[in-house]
Amino acid sequence: MIIQKSYKFYAAHRNEELQDKCSNIHGHRYGVVCHFEVERDGAISTLFGDFDRLVEPLLKDNYDHSMLIHESDPLYETLQGHMERTGECLRLKVMPRPTSVENLAYVLFTEITDLGFQLHRLDIQETDTSIIHYSREDWLADRDTFETQEAATR
Question: Which CATH fold would you assign to the domain 2-153?
Answer without folding.
Answer: Tetrahydropterin Synthase; Chain A (3.30.479)
